[in-house]
Amino acid sequence: MKTIFYLLFFVFMAFSCSNAETAEDNAQKSRVSKGSTIKYGGILKLAESEKYTSLFPAKILDAPSTKIAAQIHNGLVRFDANDLSILPSIAKDWKVDETQTEYTFNLRNNAYFHDDSCFEGGKGRKITAKDFKYTFELFCRPAFSINYKAIFKNKLKGANSFYDGASKTIEGIKILNDSTLKLTLSAPKNSFIYSLARVTTSVIAEEAYVKYGEELTVGAGPFIYHKPKDINKKLILTYNPNYFLKDEEGNQLPYLDSIVFNFITNKVEELRLFKEDKLSVIHGLPASKIASVISDNIANFNEIPPQTILDRKPEMGVNYYEFNLTRPPFNNKKVRQAFCYAVNKSKISSTILRGQGSIAKHGITPKIPTFNGYNFNLLEGYSHNPERARKLLSEAGYPNGKGFPYTRLEVNSDGGIHSTVASQIINQVNNTLGINIELDQVSFKDKIEHSKYAKSEIFRSGWVADFPSPESFLMICYGAEVPSSIEEPSYPNTMRYKSSEFDSLFNLGRSTIDKDLSYEYFVKAEKILIEDAPLMPLWYNEDYYLSKSEVRNFNYNPMEHYDLAVVYIKTLTREEVIESRKKETHQEGL
Description:
18 helices, Dipeptide-binding Protein, domain 3, single chain, alpha+beta, four-stranded mixed sheet, 19% strand
């Protein structure tokens, strides 16, 4: 499923410092690496189509915020960017008891918070088990209800009573000594260790929270935040000279001097900046340029060394439309099903996406190699069936769309693709069902807020897994945490879908340690979800990464998890390319 094209766009030029010159000036240029593999220094220039919404771990809900905050903050454990397995982080090791409910973490003695004026003498202090107790108790408060419900509620022993104010401490958190922390669950949860690798459970210093509150950017991660001149255009991170992790040769991480995140809403503009050496990597090509990028440069495949690399991979993400189930007409299952049958996803893929995604033929869980063993054959999604769509709408009481209430579809910009898709879907629904839909394009932040309070009839949405399991997708529709009043926010179940049968199977799946049995429960739950259609899966993410060939160790994983501490910049040599191609040829022969 991997296709790599080596592209020669232009003669290699040195990295432009652009607006990151200040960040590079702050870096220590005297760092010398051990061994001949890695190289210290350089600026990695990235682009995000949406600006982050928060860098405070307990408030993070969106992908741009996650990518950035994960470079600033660290927790007990972390994801391996290669295979998404769990690696040590501030905890150097841990063990789980036979009941699968007690986790004992042994902390490193060289992990410190970033230097900051909130600490005595401005020097970041050592992280202890007490800091994790403070962090988890802080996050188990009503102010952070969304992530609390996703991570700790009904999992960490005593978290529920603490959240409700019935207890002053959380029973399941025990400090054995400064460097040993024990967490006890109320029952086995096979995804709990993954939750501890998410940026939302990163450690927080009490001094920093007291001084900065939710504007806190002091962490323990490999990079340090610098407040930008224009927060809407870019953000700069510089390397943390006191970071605790080292590579196998003893080189201290991170390797880069700095990272610049540029917020660019136009994909064509991203590509232009990449060609001008003002971006190091771009994720997702403009649909109108994909064919020309490939056809114009495929002839340069054998250039040695290539200056750019194009990589395409399936991702652990899905794009979908969600229906507001709190009021007519979408509280009627037949209406929702009619919409699902009315949409021609193949046409959207061929005319708009053009390879940047695969049609959602199943449910909300994408069919990717990561989920081998998940029985997608039992999950038949909605195909384009106009006759069936019209029949269902008529049975729902709206023949040919007659009497159908005012309906608004709310989307965010994201480079324009979502508004383009929305326009086509609106036309398809109108032509098939005779229903008029108004398109409302808003900021990403407003779209999230409006969906939490059910302020529109249909919302465009997308979900990238927080951990490598179907559970991370099905949790979107878990109904036990949905509030009874729309005056209270509901997230991630913004449809406010409730099904006791779905919830029961979902709970069995996430409480079962055996992976195969867990998958069986999840598949059964997803079958119910497809039938009830609270949302309409459109396509599974599959996108292009275009990077400069000198950017090394930028691992592309299906969860879009960035571990930029291990990235380094080093010119690709002719000898390396020849050797690499020899190995590839040998492996293909085997």
